[in-house]
Design brief:
Strand order of the largest sheet: 2-1-6-5-4-3
Structural class: alpha+beta
Pfam families: SnoaL_4
Shape: globular
CATH architecture: Roll
Protein name: SnoaL-like domain-containing protein
CATH topology: Nuclear Transport Factor 2, Chain: A
């Protein structure tokens, strides 16, 4: 294999590893899998989630159980991913649609956010992880009361997702495991 092709292959593999990292983050957030979330960041990483937390990512993850407590549904969807590699570091602008169903004062309301993650990644010991992540909101669509109807006849007999280890994915899959990247 010539050097040019080897360089292109390495870049392709690195970009795929970063895509996998970004997708694993969405899964960890939506399933409230804090062990998995912790494994996605370097120990000295920074996370900026606005009023929820700004600073060390591990402190943000420590706060996640309380932050997520009122959230009946979390559903993160990655759309456009722009990545730039520079050796063992990279930067990414990741577009997301994030749906939240939140319980407040006994009532459920919905918040759909269109935004982006501004990410910095580093590959250490051969593994890509977040070194810095910041959330940017581009728009927000709230609905009060909630418009979600999990009892709609169209969903009759379907698996219904939920946060935590009771989600049907954990019984269905044998390779995708809770707490693992």
């Amino acid at each position: 294999m010539d050097a040019s092709l080897e360089t292109q292959l390495r870049e392709l593999l690195d970009k795929q590893a970063i895509h996998d990292l970004v997708n694993a983050y969405c899964n960890a957030a939506d399933r409230h899998d804090h062990a998995k979330m912790r494994a996605l960041y370097h120990e000295d990483a920074i996370d900026d989630h606005g009023h929820f937390a700004r600073g060390p990512a591990m402190e943000f993850i420590d706060k996640l159980p309380e932050i997520q407590k009122p959230m009946a549904i979390l559903h993160h969807n990655v759309t456009t991913v722009n990545l730039k590699l520079d050796g063992d570091r990279a930067e990414g602008e990741v577009y997301i649609l994030a749906f939240h169903q939140v319980k407040h004062e006994g009532e459920l309301f919905d918040v759909l956010i269109g935004g982006r993650y501004f990410d910095k990644y580093e590959k250490r010991a051969g593994l890509w992880k977040f070194s810095h992540r910041a959330i940017v909101a581009d728009w927000c669509y709230p609905a009060h009361p909630t418009q979600v109807r999990l009892d709609h006849p169209f969903l009759h007999g379907a698996y219904i997702g939920e946060p935590g280890p009771a989600d049907p994915s954990y019984a269905f899959f044998s390779l995708l495991k809770r707490g693992e990247r």
